[in-house]
Amino acid sequence: MNLSNVSRKKAFLGNITTSVRNEVWKLCRNDKTILDVCCGNGLFFLNFQELVRSNDSSGSNSVSHYPQKEQTFGNVARDTSPLPLQEDDGRDGKRVLIGIDRSDELLKEAKRIFQDNTIGGVELLRCNAFQLPFKSNAFDRVVCVNTLLNLPSLDAIETLILELMRVCKAGGKLVIDIRNRRNPYIRWRYRLLAKKEKFPIKAYKVEELEDIFHRHGFSCTKIVPIGCPLKFCAKAFLIEASSSNL
After folding, report:
1. Is the residue at 97 inside a domain?
2. Closest CA relative to residue 147, chosen from 7, 41, 243, 30
3. Predicted confidence (pLDDT) per residue in 129-153, tens digit
4. What's the whole-model pTM score?
5. How far apart are CA 94 and CA 179, in angstroms?
């Protein structure tokens, strides 16, 4: 695996972030239509390396902008013409892999990383995670990892989760992660980092996320501790959820 074009290696290739990506891969390796929200530089898709190569041996991929104008999180009205998936997407044995992010810079980095590793068949879109340009019930699996730690509040997390739920198929699965606020080291470290950085760095409790899912008709189907099997000592938690109204 060629990671020479990965920027900020300490952040993107850190122990927790890498472990989270690897655990998500175990959960969704058999899903046909997968959306990675806030995909950044696309490292999650490297786990699908051999599968993606078999889907698209040309190694091609694209970066699209939707819509063309600049967007920021949370203050853009939903476009009236959401992008549909094709009716046969995922039904002919071919995977549909889409990553979205608001950062042009990171999406271009993802394209370089894909080229370095001969990854094709992944579509990259620049758009707003809070207003996804897809019709409802579009994806078997919606992934949003190594992201919630940079959201400022549970209200912001709830708003994002509602949008992730919207594009997840009935019977599909949503996967997120949080850093564990009950871990004293994580709590102390993130408080220090938050004072140094210009963006939020926050840890949360599993119960807080379970409550959000429960109030909106989703139930947690798996909770995977990252870094340590003991809940108190885990550095992070991976949370898989699906609709409880089937």
Report:
1. yes
2. 41
3. 999 999 999 999 999 999 999 999 9
4. 0.84
5. 34
